[in-house]
Amino acid sequence: VSESVGKLTLADIARLAGVGVGTASRALNDSPSVAPATRARVLAMAEKYHYVISPDASRLARGTTGRVAVVVPHLSRWFFGTMVEALESVFREARIDVLLYQVGDRRDRQEFFQRLPARRKVDAVVVVGFPVEETERERLELLDVQVVAAGGQHAVYPHVSIDDHQAGEQAVGHLVSLGHRAIAMIEAVDPDQSPSPSQRSAAYYSALEEAGIPVDPRLVVRVDWGGEQGAEAMGQLLSVRNRPTSVYAHSDEVALGAIRTIRRAGLRIPEDISVVGIDDHPLAALTDLTTVRQPVWEQGRRSGELILSLLEGNPAEYSLTLPTRLVVRSTTCPPAASD
Amino acid sequence: VSESVGKLTLADIARLAGVGVGTASRALNDSPSVAPATRARVLAMAEKYHYVISPDASRLARGTTGRVAVVVPHLSRWFFGTMVEALESVFREARIDVLLYQVGDRRDRQEFFQRLPARRKVDAVVVVGFPVEETERERLELLDVQVVAAGGQHAVYPHVSIDDHQAGEQAVGHLVSLGHRAIAMIEAVDPDQSPSPSQRSAAYYSALEEAGIPVDPRLVVRVDWGGEQGAEAMGQLLSVRNRPTSVYAHSDEVALGAIRTIRRAGLRIPEDISVVGIDDHPLAALTDLTTVRQPVWEQGRRSGELILSLLEGNPAEYSLTLPTRLVVRSTTCPPAASD
């Protein structure tokens, strides 16, 4: 028993006391910002389980730089803005400053990763929503800092993300279960960040195969992420001779673009064409869009906590996959009887 | 002539050479990141106008901390995300790091401004989209750094923003010119940031007065910013006995919420009720929303350049007001003939 007790981490103490890791850390460091009752609860747990602040743990409080880098491709998009919002709130709570780096295209990324090791300005790096390439990984290694991938799956780094394949299955499965067989996909790919299609595409093919629906390649259009891109893609899909009865879009913004094109063509949603997205963007609720909800703020928060835990010296290189779920609103229904 | 030449700033040289201030600075400091042709152009302008790097100007290159703080209330909202995106790109170009601070509510703000002077971690502070209160201003003064307000008007700091009164007039004026007289307003106020209504409200009253339309207080609903809030406000407006023929919302997100409520009530847009917003949010184009466009990225970029100019020692405490313009899409039309 004593062995396992000896291994209790700050994160464990925090959980036992029912507070965040940052609060626990500050309580143990006698920060005046922690309410007396909260501090008492944390100290009681630390005492009960013989928790002592390890040199590694106290490094968090002292910090070598006291800063974490958050690297993100596009801040103006809801997914990334929300991720950074959540990360910042975790780090702020732990009194760690956030250095923000935006790497919108391949050139930005190259420059960032080239310059990074020369500077040693941070204790950790959070990479938000893009896969790290091999050369970039080598640069990060020179830095000798903790790295966590938020909102993206990585073979080499601990990450917090959703299961894109599952999200895609939920979306396409919904259309299949409504009786659709002519199901189009607008697949979104950012050539600057990740040139190959994601598991959201793979899910489409496997869901169709499972349902015994042959793939019609004319019903798959690949575009960059974004509403205008979705609108254009939908234009292509409407020109296919037997036009689809439903559309699976890789994101809500892409779906909303497709919806505009459908409406402008004088077709009704969902009676003529059903549309489903992925995200549950705040505007999806406002536009009554059926979608697959992913917990974005939660992914950011958990990624931040993972960094804190690693900075405390916990070796646990765990990764987290958060659940997604279908949210049915008014843009999907069974296909019109075709006879 | 020699006097005015002697006063040429780095910003002037940059403009004359057709490059950004950051690029000009790096060119004059022999940074290898500037293309030879660009450097030559900058040096030629500097020579032609006898520009010399002042001790203040070279402070930019050396930097005291090399960091700027960007303080923002909500990162997940498009307006703020876009602002920060633009600011970060200007500072990255100038090799200045961005420390990001999110102050979502009054408590966050108080804590931020309390802790700020103790740290002197930055050379400048950009306050994005909220007015700085008197006590906060005093804390900022202790810091002795440059302060710029991005996307908000301030009596005490240089700022870059739009004219909210003009934007409101463009929106309400559009409804008036279409023949509407029963014009509702959903006014958005963030009680945590700025408890009193903005000039977007004042514009409504003055536009109605100018058109000789008496104000009906039942047609004004005040809510917090956001789509769901707009949806609720619209519910209230639909319950007014003589329901409005048009709605002016303080933002596109609020307008999109109102639109959902109108559609769910079985009413048609724009035939039964016209809706106009402010912003030109990317989803406004996708949802065919009539709105007043404000240049958000541009406000961020100009704010960043203003900081760079101040850091170079330019005394010019100028403020910029960027133009807004009406974008007519399909959510507004003349009111139905009422007889």
Structural description of this entry:
2 copies of one chain form a homodimer. Chain A has 339 residues and is an alpha/beta fold. Helix content of chain A is 44%, strand content 17%. Chain A has 14 helices and 12 strands. A 6-stranded parallel sheet of chain A has the order 2-1-3-4-5-11, with helices on both faces. In chain A, strand 3 (124-128), helix 8 (134-143) and strand 4 (146-150) form a beta-alpha-beta unit. In chain A, helix 2 (10-17) crosses helix 3 (21-28), helix 2 packs across helix 4 and helix 11 packs across helix 12. The longest helix of chain A is centred in the first third of the chain and has 16 residues, at 78-93. The radius of gyration of chain A is 23 Å and the shape is elongated. Chain A starts with a helix and ends in a 12-residue tail after the last strand. In chain A, 53% of the residues are buried. The model of chain A is unreliable at 1-6 and 54-63 (pLDDT under 50). The A-B interface holds A 33, 67, 70, 74-78, 80-82, 84-85, 88-89, 92, 97-102, 104, 108, 121, 226-228, 231, 253, 256-257, 259-260, 282-283, 285-288, 297 and B 67, 70, 74-78, 80-82, 84-85, 88-89, 92, 97-102, 104, 108, 111, 121, 226-228, 231, 253, 256-257, 259-260, 282-283, 285-288, 297.
Q: Strands, helices and their partners?
A:
Two copies of one chain form a homodimer.
Chain A: H1 2-6, H2 10-17, H3 21-28, H4 36-48, H5 55-62, E1 67-72, H6 78-93, E2 97-102, H7 106-115, E3 124-128, H8 134-143, E4 146-150, E5 159-162, H9 164-177, E6 183-188, H10 199-210, E7 220-223, H11 227-238, E8 246-249, H12 252-264, E9 274-279, H13 282-286, E10 290-293, H14 296-311, E11 320-322, E12 325-327
Parallel strand pairs in A: 1-2, 1-3, 3-4, 4-5, 5-11, 6-7, 6-8, 8-9, 9-10
Antiparallel strand pairs in A: 10-12
Helix pairs in contact in A: 2-3, 2-4, 3-4, 6-14, 9-10, 11-12
